[in-house]
Specification:
With 362 residues, this protein is α/β, with parallel strands linked by helices. It folds into two domains: 14-88 and 189-355, Rossmann fold (3-Layer(aba) Sandwich), CATH 3.40.50.1100; 91-183, Rossmann fold, CATH 3.40.50.1100. It has 13 helices and twelve strands. The strands form three sheets. The protein has a six-stranded mixed beta sheet, with helices on both faces. A four-stranded parallel beta sheet has the order 7-6-5-8, with helices on both faces. Strands 1-2 form a two-stranded antiparallel sheet. Helix 1 (44-55) crosses helix 7, helix 3 packs across helix 7 and helix 4 (119-129) packs parallel to helix 5 (145-153). The longest helix has 17 residues, at 189-205. The protein is globular.
Length: 362
Amino acid sequence: MAGGGHRRSPKQARVIILIVRGTCGIGSGRCPATRKRIRDVFDLNQLEAATTIVRAAIPPTPQYAWPLLGKRIGAEVWVKHENHTPTGAFKLRGGLVYLDHVVQLGDAGRGLITATRGNHGQSIPCAAARHGVAVTVVVPNGNAVEKNAAMEAFGARLVVYGSDFDEAREEAERLGDAEGLAMVPSFDSLLVRGVATYALEFFNAVKDLDTVYVPIGMGSGVCGLITVRDLLGLETKIVGVVSTKAPAYALSYEAGHVVTTNSARTFADGVACRVPSPDALEIICGGAARIVQVSDDEVAEAMRVYHSDTHNMAEGAGAAPLAALMQERERMQGKRVGVILCGGNVDSAVYAAVLAGKTPSV
């Protein structure tokens, strides 16, 4: 493995993303600002402090270059295994940092409330339990049964409402106001800071990565990777991945402003977003090379490939980056690339159908 990496001009400890109208950063996207804007995300000292918080609950997750994946793609493929955390997904990192901050400020009040399709809804109660803070989680109808059970097992009060994540989010805001509960958003700088600790692990462990593929739900994962890449002065390209059935972030990236969709009916529930976060979009436009859309059939195939080539279970969102890499395998020939396996929380019935060669319907 080569060392050192291709680096940009040295930066100080603080990363600043400059957003201007038109094309910006290293990506080809258009920025959503009509005037100059500077977003101060976090610095290396804050990232190291977040790492200390995360490390108290989660050891560094592994990254492996699986030979069968490499042979299949024709590249050196490194998988960052965020499916190996105590909640089976990367989101716990953000929850730990967010709760630490809330408790220090005394802002927990009567408790917290949030909305989710699953992994965020496990991370917040899991982190909150360490501080004795009550959490209510609102999920949409038809949410993954086993994810719901895990949320309750971590101590959450579960409320089912609406047909998708965004309707559940609106209900969480209403219920929080009515009951005096503090709302935990799905995208927040503290969540990004916590999630970014996996990016720091990955970049420190694997040098000279040409490209990293990462799924986009609400954006904490991709924003963490972009920010840490810039802090370390690396040239690694960050490629976001969304579903063809939930393309809001891809449409927004191309348009240069938030574009919402009427539905997000993909079985890859972790990327089922209809309404992008403007803050996340700003960072993505400033630092992502591109956004790739993958179909549910491609995601299902990637889940099967993870099983056959690594014997790891990936949920739909977790397999989406590999699906994008498989779609772009000709472009990645001979390169060192990374994929973020962000989670493995998939219902057994869904996974059984996928392994049987089917694509689950929603």
